[in-house]
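Lay summary. Proteins are chains of building blocks that fold into shapes, and those shapes determine what they do. In this project we predict the shape from the chain. Here is one chain we studied, written as its sequence of building blocks.
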Amino acid sequence: MKKNSTVRIVYCLVFALIMVGNKAICKEAKTSIQKITSQDMSKKLGSSKPHRAQPRIPDGTRKHSVGLGVGQTVLLGDFRHVAVDSITFDVIYSYSASHSFDMIANLHYSKHSFKSGYVKLPALVVGIKARLFHLDSFSPFVVGGLGFYRPRLRREIGSQGWVTSTARITFGFHFGGGVDLKLNEHYTIGVLGQYHDPFDVKQEIGTDIEGSYFKLLITGSYTF
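And here is the predicted shape, written in a compact code that computers can read:
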């Protein structure tokens, strides 16, 4: 009887050890499966993570641009009474200070004639170009600033006949707007409309020079 009890105890211990071992094995297998599944899921989520949309043509800051504007100069005020409108050229430089604002400089010279009279309009102006928004590679903008002008004209003054005005450098302001279309990383084309108003130039003979002009240009520039 005592021997049978001992055998039964041994059987019970063996059975308990087998159950504990099976439970440990099942737990370890479950942990391994969860780990593998988690890694697979992470890889899938990582591969399916949406990529941030990139612009078709990259934009940049702290870049220089030089360009040329060609178009019509429309004379206003005293200038219009002396000469006629004509096609003119502008040299344009800009520096991209940020994604929205550029420093822009404009150098131009034009001579407009009619009969014996003429108007000469040299100027160097500086301003700020502010982009309103970006639509892919297209961006409208506004521009405004100050500059130096040296208008000179030859006009008929009563009995004194044709008189050439005294040339003096004067301050003035300009403002306008336009659109740019970025063709690639380096080349841009656009349209620029700009109003220039030099301050009045006092004259010893005749009335002071009070004139302004408007430029409508097709522009092209190279960025580096």
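What the prediction tells us: The helical segments are 2-47, 78-82.
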